[in-house]
């Protein structure tokens, strides 16, 4: 493997920004210093010329749709879009077809990724009301964790039996990641709006149907169960200001038993955007109010919320263009997540150091990912160079998702990803993919 030397970078790492060079050999960072001389004649030199070098994003929640839903996306297409967006590792969800609710089905997904992924990968194992025996077989050193749908599930993945849920929480030593929305509350809200509007419900009713109350009831119930059983709980895509008060910043992340994630779309959009974006920003949980958006950012900055993810969940435009009741929830985000966060930096809302903390350092700490998430000597060289002053326009011609669209269509971003390295290989460079990646299955220090 060819050595790589990154020169003249503004390195953003562990709460600091400093000018320096980074040397990579055999896929690992071997030296970080103010100045490094070229070691061999065939070393690849990347002159950062003052661009910012970040550890690659670790996205802890994506839906890449393979197997079974590959008309929307697949591991190859979406991981390629991810590395173009600065994401070097991802954790994918179990609600594919078939669902990854047995060890054999989970390993089939790992096998697909080993052959086609552009980024490092892991997968969540899916919990159901009747697969505890399989859950207990999962090796926590080789699998990211257990995903439980406590609302908004597909297939048979809604875990709604309280006795089973408590048994899972009590017996598993896996990190439990949960989608928290109360189905009964949502059902009641939906019936109310159907009685008023029939089948012609507006997309603007989405945050009222999948309401603050539905989120809070479910999140608080899951947290109480985790506290009762001692389970390690991670609450996915917190979407309301009210929920943020369920989480604490009194302990360092490595010591927390209950943690939280916020997604890019909940930091970017509000219910005012339904007028122009329609079902393209229909997600579960729903995008809610400006108050919620502001509260999520505040909780992120004061460390009640621990990580930022995408919940990348593509659908075709044909599917999304249905009316409210028939349009699926979810949208593509991995290619544009980092540049959207950098836009918040340009607006003075978040620092570069905090972006790196929440997208790279903290996912590595939270999931106990081995040798990734930091720019450290000896660590895997998963790195991203960004130019903070190179505007570009999101348009169909440069969208890499298989579905071919983005909720950021037409947006001009001030920053762009210029280079992405996965395990020391330059897989993305100035809008091209010069080398095939050598991605690895993530392993965990547990």
Task: Describe this entry's structure for a reader.
Residues 52-425 form the Amidohydrolase-related domain. GO terms for molecular function: allantoinase activity; dihydroorotase activity; metal ion binding. It is an enzyme of class 3 (hydrolase). With 446 residues, this protein is of the alpha/beta class. It contains 14 helices and 18 strands. The strands form three sheets. Strands 1, 2, 3, 4, 5, 14, 17 and 18 form an eight-stranded mixed beta sheet that branches. Strands 6-7-8-9-10-11-12-13 form an eight-stranded parallel beta sheet. Strand 6, helix 1 (75-84) and strand 7 form a beta-alpha-beta unit.
DSSP strand content: 15-25%
**Which secondary-structure class do the elements indicate?**
alpha/beta
Q: What is the total tally of β strands?
A: 18
How much is the average pLDDT? 96
Overall geometry: globular
- Fourth CATH level, the homologous superfamily of the domain at 57-366: Metal-dependent hydrolases
CATH topology of the domain at 57-366: TIM Barrel
- Characterize the biggest β-sheet: 8 strands, mixed
Secondary-structure arrangement, i.e. CATH architecture of the domain at 57-366: Alpha-Beta Barrel
Terminal Cα separation, in Å? Answer: 30 Å
Helix content: 25-40%
Helix count? 14
CATH class of the domain at 57-366, please?
A: Alpha Beta
Mind telling me the C-alpha Rg?
21 Å
Give the quaternary arrangement of the chains: single chain
- Name the poorly predicted regions: none
């Amino acid at each position: 493997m060819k050595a790589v030397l990154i020169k003249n970078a503004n390195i953003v790492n562990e709460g600091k920004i400093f000018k320096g060079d980074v040397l990579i050999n055999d896929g690992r960072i071997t030296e970080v210093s103010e100045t490094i001389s070229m070691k061999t004649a065939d070393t690849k030199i990347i002159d950062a010329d003052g661009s910012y070098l970040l550890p690659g994003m670790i996205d802890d929640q994506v839906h890449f749709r393979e197997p079974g839903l590959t008309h929307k996306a697949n591991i190859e297409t979406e991981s390629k879009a991810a590395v173009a967006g600065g994401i070097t590792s991802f954790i994918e969800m179990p609600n594919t077809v078939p669902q990854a609710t047995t060890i054999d089905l989970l390993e089939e997904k790992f096998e697909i990724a080993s052959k086609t992924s552009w980024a490092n990968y892991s997968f969540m194992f899916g919990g159901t009301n009747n697969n505890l025996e399989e859950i207990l077989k999962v090796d926590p050193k080789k699998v990211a964790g257990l995903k439980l749908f406590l609302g908004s599930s597909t297939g048979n993945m809604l875990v709604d039996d309280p006795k089973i849920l408590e048994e899972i929480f009590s017996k598993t030593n896996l990190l439990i990641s949960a989608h928290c929305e109360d189905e009964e509350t949502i059902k009641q809200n939906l019936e109310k709006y159907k009685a008023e509007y029939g089948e012609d419900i507006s997309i603007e009713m989405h945050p009222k149907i999948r309401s603050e109350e539905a989120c809070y009831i479910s999140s608080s119930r899951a947290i109480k169960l985790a506290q009762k059983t001692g389970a390690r709980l991670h609450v996915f895509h917190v979407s309301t200001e009210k929920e943020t008060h369920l989480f604490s910043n009194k302990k360092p992340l490595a010591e927390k038993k209950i943690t939280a994630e916020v997604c890019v779309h909940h930091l970017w959009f509000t219910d005012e955007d339904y007028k122009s974006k329609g079902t393209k920003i229909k997600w579960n949980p729903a995008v809610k109010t400006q108050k919620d958006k502001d509260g999520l950012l505040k909780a992120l900055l004061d460390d009640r919320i621990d990580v930022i993810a995408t919940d990348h969940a593509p659908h075709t435009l044909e599917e999304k263009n249905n009316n409210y009741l028939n349009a699926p929830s979810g949208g593509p985000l991995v290619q544009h997540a980092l540049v959207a966060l950098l836009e918040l930096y340009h607006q003075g809302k978040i620092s570069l150091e905090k972006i790196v903390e929440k997208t790279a350092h903290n996912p590595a700490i939270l999931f106990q990912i081995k040798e990734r998430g930091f720019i450290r000597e000896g660590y895997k060289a998963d790195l991203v160079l960004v130019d903070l002053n190179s505007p570009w326009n999101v348009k169909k011609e440069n969208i890499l998702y298989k579905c071919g669209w983005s909720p950021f269509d037409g947006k001009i971003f001030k920053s762009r990803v210029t280079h992405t390295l996965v395990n020391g290989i330059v897989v993305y460079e100035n809008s091209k993919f010069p080398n095939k990646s050598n991605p690895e299955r993530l392993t965990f220090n547990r």
